[in-house]
Amino acid sequence: MAVDKNMHVLIVDDYKTMLRIIRNLLRQIGFVNIDEATDGSMALQMMRGGNYGLVISDWNMEPMTGLQLLREVRSDAKLKNTPFIMVTAESKSENVIAAKEAGVSNYIVKPFNAETLQAKMVSVLGEF
User: Fold this and answer.
1) CA-to-CA distance for 112 and 110, rounded, in angstroms?
2) 23 versus 95: which is more confidently predicted?
């Protein structure tokens, strides 16, 4: 089944410029229903009240990090199957391992472009 480009995507980052960049990249590859959260706790509230087909979250945020958000999502029966892509500026192997152990769907290291984002999304969601 083809991926529905009208599905709701939640992007989470405490840096407004990064939210704008990711939103623009998503638009370039055809996704238009994009919501934004500026930290993990806000994102978790939005997820519990909405229906998201994908979450793209930064790792480094306060007060709730992307990793904490991921753990909360994976421990919630309603949200646990939501595809989750982690974005980080650090490619440290221990971070990748921690995210994998927490159940991340995929991982992107900044900076990245629309092609990289699309390739990661295809690996998580399937072709579109």
Assistant:
1) 5
2) 23
User: Quick one: which of 123, 125, 126, 110 has its CA closest to 25?
Assistant: 110
Are 57 and 91 within 8 A, CB to CB? no
Is the pTM higher than 0.70? yes
In the sheet where 9-12 sits, what is the strand order? 34-37, 9-12, 54-58, 84-88, 106-109
3-state secondary structure the chain: CCCCCCCCEEEECCCHHHHHHHHHHHHHCCCCCEEEECCHHHHHHHHHHCCCCEEEEECCCCCCCHHHHHHHHHCCCCCCCCCEEEEECCCCHHHHHHHHHHCCCEEEECCCCHHHHHHHHHHHHCCC
